[in-house]
What does this fold into?
Amino acid sequence: MVTRLPAKYLWASMRVTVSLTITGKMPLNATSFNKTTKVASMTITKIHGSISVSAISCTATVDGTGATAHNGMVKATFSNTTDTLKVLATGGNLHIYNPSSGCNGAVSNNDAVNFTGGYKFAPKQTITSP
It folds into this structure.
């Protein structure tokens, strides 16, 4: 019988709101374009921000190679057909830095992290080359 779980596992089972605030501009860079599928491979760079989980008073910095590096990066694709930017779950370098004591082991310094999702562009965009 399990009577206690480490905070990391307990936190994962809770329903909490996580807020992410990005500071500065994040360039969207096309790296290749597939003319057949009309899909561009992209990177989003210079990601730096903070993450907050108010339910447990947890805050931390999100960045790439260091807390003040301002070089966080994720990979993405953009489809001309669906007009959607899809942030991928792999290929980035985002990490957590300087978690507050409220995080209580839910996240640790240098833990890898990512965000994923699909984002529609308005007005419609068409990419034809990197």
